[in-house]
Amino acid sequence: MTLLNTLNLDSDLAQQLELEQQLMLGYKQCINTTNSLWLWQATPSLVVSKIDSNLKNFEEAKLYTESQGLPVNIRQSGGSAVIQNDQVINISRIYIQDDPITIQQSYLNMCRPVLDVLKDLGIEAYLGSVEGAFCDGAYNIVYQGKKLAGTSQRWLSVPKSKSKIILEHMVIVLKKDYKLWTKKLNDFYRMAGSTQSFKDSAIISLEEIKGDITTEDFCKKLLTEYA
């Protein structure tokens, strides 16, 4: 496994998305042959899916959001918009899956290392949906009914092969102040013409569960588990 930008805690989101695209292209051209994984944080920004970029009033919402100091970027994987800042940590991984695999199994493989780290910290988390949480899905990492982490994927076919290129994203909420950003997400969707709305009460942070672990120590545990 190739570790990239490990513990890069002050990244530009556009640069991260560009790195992702370069890696995906390398895999498609069979230049890369090993897993790539990186942990990162970005300066305050909003990242949306391609589906969000098709909303009726997306451009107006984008301009307004950027006027509030949040650059808006479009990612390749699915899910709803996510605020990026130092209140969350991102895990990104790209790899080639040669053997047939279901989406369910790929998500389970994606989440297992994080669930194991949390368990070692005494946190009994599980996978599930959380109504009212941002970027909700069946494979959230959940603690006591609240969302701790969100996940998304994108699959591409390898030319002239049955293998798949899988891009994985996970966003883990580290700090309780992240809840305050829920209003900005709701403002964006309202202006963009969407009925989506989120509740800060649906989110829980690692800080609220176990306040004595630092971001750096948590990331080191994650990297050890993935390695």
From TrEMBL:
Pfam families: LplA-B_cat
PROSITE patterns documented for this protein: BPL_LPL_CATALYTIC (PS51733)
Signal peptide range: none
Lineage top rank: taxon: Bacteria
Domain BPL/LPL catalytic residues, every copy: 31-227
InterPro entries documented for this protein: aa-tRNA-synth_II/BPL/LPL, BPL_LPL_catalytic, Octanoyltrans_LipM/LipL
Protein name per Swiss-Prot or TrEMBL: BPL/LPL catalytic domain-containing protein
Organism annotation: Brumicola pallidula DSM 14239 = ACAM 615
